[in-house]
Amino acid sequence: MNGYLAILRRELAGLFLQPLAWFLLAVALLLQGLFYSAALGGLFAGDTAGALTFALGGGVGFWVLMAVLPPLITMRMVSEEARSGLLEFLLTAPVRDSAVILGKASAATLFFALVWCAAPLYAVLLAVLGVEVDWGQVLWGYAGALVVSALFCSAGLFASALSATPALAAFIAFSIGVVLLALPSLGLLDPYLAPETAREIFSKFDVLARHQASFLRGALDTAHLVFFLTWIALFLFLATRLLEMRRWR
After folding, report:
1. What angle do CA 217, 186, 179 make, to 5 degrees?
2. What distance in Å separates the CA atoms of residue 11 and residue 4, rounded to the nearest whole number?
3. C-alpha dihedral over 14, 17, 23, 27, to 10 degrees?
């Protein structure tokens, strides 16, 4: 795609030149270490496979980080450039709007490839110490973490394109993430639907259940993969349309 690699390199350089990105990376790795050690010593009582699964999406800590970090990483990607005027120069360059959005989304997702690398490193350390590791489960769990990260980063990018203020963009992205995670429970509050009907309908939008039913089990269910890819494509499409609106203003 025209300009995609240039945008990707530019965004990666911009991310890792920001102190905020390094601070968030350090905090995320520290918290993952604490979550993993607490799960290994307490909840799973020495079950290394269970603790690794907990670190890759089986525990609440993973989802708290997933709801908080992507908005902070993506909030400046469009809104700050629009406010500073840099976006105008970018939009006049011979680069497609879709390449701009896809390059930014890819850069944010690659950042999270580093954020979630702690669990595979723990698995390597366990293997060195002689513990038997289910590498299929670890690798699919890591892949699942990246897919979910791509979803939340695309939502954050949509919010950044929607608002000209980074703080507001972060709040919108955080709200979208919370709604995505809580949607099955919120559906049960609908007074016009029977609980069984609401549960059946809104379970189809359950991000946690789909992630845990496929990637965390060490297998790939194409139906769940299509679910995530559809949501990612929707947010990227909306972000691209918003960027096009800015171009023609």
Report:
1. 70
2. 11
3. 60
d(CA 227, CA 229): 6
Burial zone of 49 (CB within 10 Å; 0-12 exposed, 13-18 middle, 19+ buried): middle
Is residue 178 a contact partner of residue 60, using CB atoms and an 8 Å limit? no
SS3 76: coil
First to last CA, the chain: 25
108: burial class by Cβ within 10 Å (0-12, 13-18, 19+)?
Answer: buried
CA quadruple 157, 163, 168, 173: dihedral, nearest 10: -30
Q: What is the pTM of this model?
A: 0.88
Q: Of 239, 245, 249, 196, nearest to 78 (Cα)?
A: 239
Encode pLDDT of 224-240 as tens digits.
889 999 999 999 999 99
